[in-house]
Amino acid sequence: MNREYHxxxxxxxxxxxxxxxxxxxxxxxxxxxxxxxxxxxxxxxGLVHALKHKLEQGHxxxxxxxxxxxxxxxxxxxxxxxxxxxxxxxxxxxxNEVLPFMQSKNPHECVISHGLSLGAFHATNITFRYPHLFKxxxxxxxxxxxxxxxxxxxxxxxxxxxxxxxxxxxxHFMPNMDCSWRLSHLRAxxxxxxxxKEDPFLQNNEHLSSILSQKDIKxxxxxxxxxxxxxxxxxxxxxxxx
Length: 242
Hints:
The chain is of the alpha/beta class. The chain has one domain: Rossmann fold (3-Layer(aba) Sandwich), CATH 3.40.50. Helix content is 38%, strand content 20%. The chain contains 10 helices and 8 strands. It has helices at residues 41-44, 47-50, 52-56, 80-105, 118-129, 163-167, 170-173, 180-187, 202-214, 231-241; strands spanning 3-10, 15-22, 27-32, 60-65, 111-116, 136-140, 190-196, 223-224. An 8-stranded mixed β-sheet has the order 1-2-4-3-5-6-7-8, sandwiched between helices.
């Protein structure tokens, strides 16, 4: 199986960024790690191995990016306005550096956005904001409203709210989306949101699912038994949904 390590200095993030590529051809998969996860997490959790056949057969090619969650949503010393601003810079890095890099290596027309846990938020948020760039979304165990206080998961902005937070919270901006161009792309997309029955963000997933249904955006939301929020479950999910 083809495995490549890449790193470059990101002008948008003003730091070095790393990523791993797996596979040689096929649909391109932009992979976001879980909360505070690194670019090698997907491989370490055994998800690359779970997709070995599809990768070796040239059906999929993975691009596993690094996270900067410790500098954005989980940067406790930064004011919430700085946290969301740093996230916006991360999105600019993905849009203007990673996606063009993927295109330069592989011209396949299908780009899939995929993430685990907080990575599911990243994958879903960027896909709903820029639906013309993606053909498919596969999100596992996601939280789509970072302002919620659920279980031991706190509002990551501590009550602070601004326009950037609104436009980077799928369950906030999607109800008001009325752009026919964006909606047409979303309606043509293959969308899968997977969540566990005991996951603390089940209700948030159900809420987002209802919003999509109201917008006539076809999708599936399989609900697994238990919390289903770990590598053991994600390895089984990825064989079914990606």
